[in-house]
Amino acid sequence: MIFTSSLLLFFTCTWMLSECIVEEDIYALVGKEAKLYFDYNLDWNNINIQNDGGVLASIQKKPTDMKISFSGKNGIDAKSLPETNKILVTIKNVNSSYNGNITMLETTTGLPLKLWRVHVLEGLPANPVIKGSSPTWAGQDYELNCISDSFGVVSKYLWYKGGQLLTSSTKYNVTGNKLTIGKIRPEDSTNLTCVLGITDDIRSNNSAVFFVNVWHGPDNITITSEPPGFTVEDGKPITLFCSATCNPPCNFQWSGLVTAMEASIKVDYNASNQNGPYNCTATNPKSAVTNKKSHIVFLNSEKYVTSAIIKTESTKDTSQEEGGVSGLSSGGRTKDSNLLALFYMVLMISIPCLKTVV
Ligand SMILES: *[C@@H]1O[C@H](CO)[C@@H](O)[C@H](O)[C@H]1NC(C)=O
Ligand SMILES: *[C@@H]1O[C@H](CO)[C@@H](O)[C@H](O)[C@H]1NC(C)=O
Ligand SMILES: *[C@@H]1O[C@H](CO)[C@@H](O)[C@H](O)[C@H]1NC(C)=O
Ligand SMILES: *[C@@H]1O[C@H](CO)[C@@H](O)[C@H](O)[C@H]1NC(C)=O
Ligand SMILES: *[C@@H]1O[C@H](CO)[C@@H](O)[C@H](O)[C@H]1NC(C)=O
Ligand SMILES: *[C@@H]1O[C@H](CO)[C@@H](O)[C@H](O)[C@H]1NC(C)=O
Ligand SMILES: *[C@@H]1O[C@H](CO)[C@@H](O)[C@H](O)[C@H]1NC(C)=O
Ligand SMILES: *[C@@H]1O[C@H](CO)[C@@H](O)[C@H](O)[C@H]1NC(C)=O
């Protein structure tokens, strides 16, 4: 039972009576049933269930088989539930006159044994709304709130991810009406809804769907060519393709020998002065200054050199930043440096001897 913890059982030991009174909050919708439960095993033989308006029900314990005899007002019923060892008193068609306390008194001793604080609700809670700073950058903790008027009643908030109830885990922390998604990643993009529950029966409808949109990238920047392998031949064109993943989609810009605003460029390779650099820069349109990566290619009939220059804020997730092919031969070098909040990485790799066939 999801709501057992929210039933708010208070055990108040009153010194005067040297007796423990169980107090419980009960919620019921106007026109529906209010259900009062108590233990058959409590120390009682004859009890009255009563409120300001008088006695609602009188119950007598029978010595065998958890049986009871009962008399009560119209619309009130009592039965024993042997499987749970409890007695259930049902008040049908409740109205606001039931707001307040209902007590259970042992009639022979006059001692109170249990108190229910009855809350009659005029209607279901309004549909909640999910609020979050949307969208968010990958790598950050992301916090969402389920907002609803809960009539000031202590309630349970339930979150659903793609229709499935979310339980707290290292990834998802559900605390009160707050959901925190730790170190959000692109693949955590999802549809969420939330529900406000007061009891198992009294719960709001689903909130509207909230799409968790994770901004990320540029990731995995790379340059490829057609013909492949950066094979160049004087007088033959070569097309360079730059790719990277971003959300929202990356913008691409070429600088160096060719200036262009597209993802691919065509080079009419006909002289060694066209060897390079061909510098592709991918930027995330939401943060073109900090979320930017470049990749450089030099064309050469003898060899080609690539280098990746990665410049992002250190607060961003840098784990997915690629450094290209690892050093293979003389001339390959790697340099890392942290400058203030900037993470700046330069990788220069040269791969020798991609000889062109003449
Ligand atoms: C509430 O219900 C009781 C019993 O069903 C009835 O006597 C009373 O008139 C009702 N009060 C209101 C305000 O409707
Ligand atoms: C109901 O009982 C509580 C004790 O749990 C008491 O503080 C409160 O005043 C009572 N309310 C009414 C309306 O009698
Ligand atoms: C969940 O969040 C609450 C408050 O935001 C925090 O106190 C608690 O430590 C977090 N739990 C986990 C498992 O991270
Ligand atoms: C979210 O819901 C929309 C439509 O309601 C659907 O198109 C989209 O694929 C869903 N996204 C995810 C990540 O489930
Ligand atoms: C909740 O959903 C039910 C059934 O779909 C609908 O009849 C009711 O109007 C909804 N309640 C609200 C507050 O939107
Ligand atoms: C980057 O490439 C790796 C390896 O192919 C892949 O696992 C990862 O999902 C890619 N990252 C993104 C954001 O596309
Ligand atoms: C060499 O290529 C450039 C452009 O890249 C072009 O303008 C020029 O005509 C070409 N020269 C020859 C000899 O093909
Ligand atoms: C490549 O282009 C980007 C964007 O214009 C620039 O920041 C970077 O310094 C360039 N790299 C080189 C090695 O010129």
From TrEMBL:
Keyword Glycoprotein: yes
Signal peptide as annotated in the record: 1-20
Gene3D superfamilies for the chain: Immunoglobulins
Alphabetically ordered keywords of this record: Disulfide bond, Glycoprotein, Immunoglobulin domain, Signal
InterPro entries: Ig-like_dom, Ig-like_dom_sf, Ig-like_fold, Ig_sub, IgSF_CEA-related
Pfam families recorded: Ig_2 (PF13895)
Protein origin, superkingdom: Eukaryota
Residue ranges occupied by any Ig-like domain in the UniProt entry: 125-210, 218-297
Name under which the protein is recorded: Ig-like domain-containing protein
Species the sequence originates in: Potamilus streckersoni
